Amino acid sequence: MIVLGKELVVWRDGTNTWRAFQDMCPHRLAPLSEGRVEKDGSLLCAYHAWRFDGSGACKAIPQARDKEQEALAMRAPRACAKAYPTCEVQGLVWVWPDDSPNALLESMAEGPRLIDEMFDESLKDRLAPKAWRSAELPYGHDYFLENVVDPSHVVVSHHNIVGNRYTDPSFIDLQQQKPLNREEGFQFQNLRNKNIDGTPAKNGVTITTDFKPPCLVRISSVDDAGAQTILALYSTPSRPGYTRHVGAQIFVEGRNGKKSKGLGVFSLPLPIWLLHLMGPAFLHQDAVFLHWQEKIAARGKMGSQRAVDKYFTPTSADKMVLALRQWLERFSPAGVPFYGAYANAPLPEVERDPAKLFDTWNAHTKHCKICKKAHDNMEKLQPVAWAIAAVAAMQAAIIGASSAAAKASA
Asked: Mind telling me which residue stretches traverse the membrane in this protein (predicted)?
């Protein structure tokens, strides 16, 4: 996994705690992600069998002459794996990608960006969160954020999943509720006559969009009965031109148990692997626009221009896009700070091969335990499916031949 250009290995130790290390053994620089978690909960480097506990401390150097030499070598700071503070909250693993002496205290003081309703005891019996889904997307963090704070693209780009591109585009009256703020981002609100899935709403729906720096856009849709759908949309920059998106829908029942409408089929009670399988259908609909947009905006003179000078935005539908760009220009003028091999890396070239641009296997499936298991099970069943198809074809041929013979003899 790559976060801000840093290559990480994320694993669960013997105390059932998630850990994140730099993906590099201090011995001979082999990737620890190719190692294994042993029965004692240590992480073993598969190259020379050095072992590390959850703090990064070295616990075994089998090449040492004796226990005394091993103990002396293991105490050396250079024998330690580089560990980053982590915590597990809200069903997600959070990593503070800094190994400085004060990193743990700083991470605890800052805390992750959370969805407050998921910790509200008064909503416990009315809350129904869907499973989280993650994928690395082929465009940058800022273009992901720009996309999800843009309400007008939804019915156009996501035609036939959410709305209709020919009949649904309309005026959107966005009202700013909170001014730009370094820590709290911004908030906008609008009243719509349609639910979040595009179906008509009897008495209107209030949609509130919050940008919570640096990584969360929260979109809340509340109808007149208090039924609520929350879209939690996280983005973690991985490397130039790519970001990792983690997202979910959270439903809150309204008065008299009224359920909120979610994003079409994604709100149905489906198995997690099937929801994950359908996720790319939504993300892929506008991926090519964002992939190209980022590259076009970086070309020539436009690369040094402010967003307001690049874009022509005559309607109020783009208010949040401009607010986001203003926030980034004011509070993060240097852009995303990448490290390691990606510290000064340029944007990658435009990807013209659809198979690579829409590569769900590398973006999600191989990293997801649930989807990988479903994929492996389907592969095991494939020979059986071929055999059934072959038998069916043979039966059809036999029946056809028998029918022809019967007609000939008649």
From this structure: 384-406
- Is the CATH number of domain 116-369 3.40.50.10490? no
Rg of the chain in Å (alpha carbons): 26
Q: What is the C-alpha separation between 396 and 252, in angstroms, rounded?
A: 53
41: its two tokens: 């909960």
Do strands 43-44 and 127-129 pair parallel, antiparallel, or not at all (unpaired)? unpaired
Q: Is the pLDDT of residue 302 over 90?
A: no
The pair of structure tokens assigned to 339 is 């490290």
Contact assessment for residue 232 and residue 211, using Cβ atoms and an 8 Å cutoff: no
| The residue type at 388 | I
Looking at residues 381-402, what average pLDDT do you find? 60
Q: Do residues 321 and 153 lie in contact, with contact meaning Cβ atoms separated by under 8 Å?
A: no
pLDDT of residue 336: 95
CA distances from residue 327 to 43, 146, 212, 410 in whole angstroms, order as listed: 41, 11, 11, 85
How far is the C-alpha of 193 from the C-alpha of 263, rounded, in Å? Answer: 16
* Residue with tokens 């076009």, as numbered in its chain: 296
Residue in 347, 331, 327, 314 with CA at minimum distance from that of residue 146: 327
Q: CA–CA separation, 19 vs 84, rounded Å?
A: 7
pLDDT tens digits, 54-104: 999 999 999 999 999 999 999 999 999 999 999 999 999 999 999 999 999
Q: How far apart are CA 5 and CA 237, in angstroms?
A: 8
Rounded Cα distance between 261 and 228, Å, is 8
Closest residue by Cα to residue 218 from 206, 226, 208: 208
Closest by Cα among 198, 194, 168, 190 to 263: 198
pTM above threshold 0.85? yes
pLDDT tens digit sequence for 29-48: 999 999 999 999 999 999 99
Strand pairing category for 86-89 and 133-137: unpaired
Within 8 A by CB and 6+ apart from 62, the residues are 48, 49, 50
Pairing between β-strand 133-137 and β-strand 127-129 as defined by DSSP bridges: unpaired
Please name the fold of domain 2-110. Rieske Iron-sulfur Protein (2.102.10)
Say if residues 246 and 132 touch (Cβ distance below 8 Å): yes
